[in-house]
Design brief:
This protein is mainly α. It has helices spanning 13-34, 38-49, 55-61, 66-78, 100-109, 112-120, 127-145, and strands spanning 53-54, 82-86, 94-98. β2 (82-86) and β3 form a beta hairpin.
């Protein structure tokens, strides 16, 4: 083929995209029980590490724009998972905090990573392979985010 660089099988982006989509699907049964979406789960992971964070810090941590994350945070606030308030120091800053419901969800979510890894492992893919893949993807993210 004259344009072999345009074959789907020769693209780096396609397997990354497909794996991301399929992994997100694997999370769905666990997240449905908690009545949250995958992006909401990511926000919770950030807040479970450190509560009371500015919107822009959460957005940066998730490689999202504040315009993308704001409606997501609004829905989570409407669900009673978190609260948003203006910073006393700087009116332009909005601080996001876990509500009681959001803090309680941490216990339910604690088993999800282990179950997911168990479900991803196979005779061809070990836990070590997944750890190695995660490291390589982090390098790719670092490279792309520095551009």
């Amino acid at each position: 083929m004259k344009y072999s660089q345009l074959k789907l099988d020769n693209q780096v982006c396609f397997p990354v995209y497909t794996a991301s989509r399929l992994i997100t699907q694997e999370y769905q049964p666990y997240l449905s029980k908690m009545n949250i979406t995958y992006p909401q789960y990511l926000v919770l992971l950030v807040l479970w590490e450190k509560d009371e964070m500015p919107v822009n810090v959460i957005a940066r941590r998730l490689y999202l724009s504040t315009n993308t994350i704001t409606p997501l945070l609004q829905r989570m606030e409407d669900q009673g998972i978190l609260s948003r308030k203006r910073s006393g120091d700087d009116e332009r800053k909005v601080i996001v905090s876990l509500a009681s419901k959001g803090r309680k969800m941490k216990k339910s979510a604690a088993s999800i990573p282990g179950k997911l890894i168990k479900g991803l492992k196979s005779k061809d893919l070990s836990a070590e392979d997944l750890t190695d893949l995660k490291g390589k993807l982090n390098l790719l993210i670092k490279t792309l985010s520095e551009k």
